[in-house]
Design goal:
There is one protein chain. By secondary structure, the chain is of the alpha/beta class. Strand 5, helix 9 and strand 6 form a beta-alpha-beta unit. It contains 16 helices and 13 strands. It is globular, with a radius of gyration of 21 Å. Strands 2-8-7-6-5-3-4 form a 7-stranded mixed beta sheet, with helices on both faces. The chain folds into 2 domains: 125 residues, Aspartate Aminotransferase, domain 1; 198 residues, Type I PLP-dependent aspartate aminotransferase-like (Major domain) (Aspartate Aminotransferase, domain 2).
Length: 375
């Protein structure tokens, strides 16, 4: 119990210690310290991903160029450009297409990442405007793209649409929406921050999915466990243009080898495991949904991530999550937020390697314990 002379515990530090100290985690990878991340980069995984005896990169050559070539190959694109952040990558991609089409209007979803999480950088930095073909909690369909009232030059589709619950269209719906954009002489850009885990749902390879778009953005830390960074892939001429804007936006750093090496490790180790994560997400979701009053969204996860809703306040759920981790060394959840429905909160479940160890019965037992502690 803290007294008047004790130092308050930083909430982020408490969460890190609780989850890192847990023997079993259901959602997300185990948090790692700075020392652990350095050991990973310099250890066996790093040596398997890249020649660590070579020189560091200088202004995006060396290991960064190798990563770019690897990503282009994985997506079946002519070229790729590395960016230190996804926000920068998205803005550059949209800006480049605007320069080529002469049209500053971008069709996107109101829950798309540039609308919700990037402080409207596309408008503030590049003078672009957005139009919403639909406000439904899903990606726009072909009829909505075709019937959009304004003549957009670029259609941006986020695959999956994270803030709607990591939802995806069917393959037919996706191809029809892309075709509708082409009929309007628009280019198509995929916000594929989490594109890596969509192959099981679509039943297609990464090159087949990427081939639908004129350009694709991918992230290296959201699914692959990297330190940071992203890439934009597309035609060689377009990528050369993107690299010019990368320099102008301050993204051509002197050295970025830690982020590039972590990305290569993720492509080497995590990418082959994603189908197993996606399959087990369905098992995890079914076990969690057994609680009366709970909600899994979508009902059957389409990737290895989904939303889980409970009818309790977020503060109480967050405190119980940490208490369970600290007292039992089992952690089911990460952070909780208030849901749009009054009296409910939700968390995002990420099924990664630690979750594969959990059986449905073990999940139900731990969840029962969680709810008992909560009440």
């Amino acid at each position: 119990m803290a007294n008047e002379h004790s130092t308050p515990i930083d909430p982020a530090s408490r969460r890190f210690a609780a989850l890192r100290g847990a023997e079993r985690l259901l959602s997300g990878p185990r948090p790692r310290s700075v020392a652990e991340r350095l050991a990973e980069l310099s250890g066996e995984a790093g040596h398997a991903a890249y020649d660590l005896d070579g020189r560091p990169d200088v202004y995006c050559d060396g290991i960064v160029a190798a990563l770019e070539q690897s990503v282009a190959g994985l997506l079946g694109m002519e070229a790729a450009a590395f960016f230190p952040t996804g926000t920068m990558a998205q803005q550059v991609a949209l800006r480049c297409w605007t320069e080529r089409t002469g049209n500053p209007l971008v069709a996107m979803h109101p829950l798309a990442h540039p609308e919700v999480h990037e402080r409207h950088a596309y408008a503030q930095l590049s003078g672009l405007r957005s139009v919403w073909p639909t406000q439904e909690p899903r990606l726009p369909n072909a009829d909505e793209v075709e019937g959009c009232a304004e003549p957009f030059g670029t259609l941006m589709l986020e695959l999956p649409l994270r803030d709607a619950g990591f939802v995806l269209p069917s393959w037919e719906e996706l191809t029809d929406a892309v075709a509708a954009a082409r009929e309007r002489d628009a280019v198509v850009h995929f916000d594929g921050a989490r594109l890596w885990e969509t192959t099981a749902h679509f039943g297609r390879t990464l090159p087949e999915i990427a081939d639908l778009a004129d350009s694709v953005y991918v992230s290296f830390y959201k699914t692959l466990g990297g330190v940071s960074g992203a890439a934009v892939a597309g035609p060689a001429e377009f990528v050369a243009q993107a690299k010019a804007w990368r320099h102008r936006y301050g993204g051509q750093l002197w050295q970025q080898w830690p982020a590039a090496l972590a990305a290569l490790i993720g492509l080497e180790q995590e990418l082959p495991r994603l189908d197993a994560y996606v399959a087990h997400a369905k098992v995890v979701a079914k076990a969690l949904a057994a609680v009366p009053g709970s909600r899994v969204h979508p009902g059957v996860p389409q990737t290895h991530q989904f939303q889980y809703w409970l009818p309790y306040a977020a503060d109480a759920l967050n405190e119980t999550t940490l208490r369970q981790a600290e007292e039992t060394r089992q952690a089911l959840f990460s952070g909780w937020r208030a849901a749009p429905v009054p009296g409910h909160s939700f968390t995002e479940i990420t099924v990664a390697a630690p979750a594969l160890e959990w059986s449905p019965e073990e999940i139900e037992d731990a969840l029962g314990q969680f709810l008992k502690m909560l009440r």
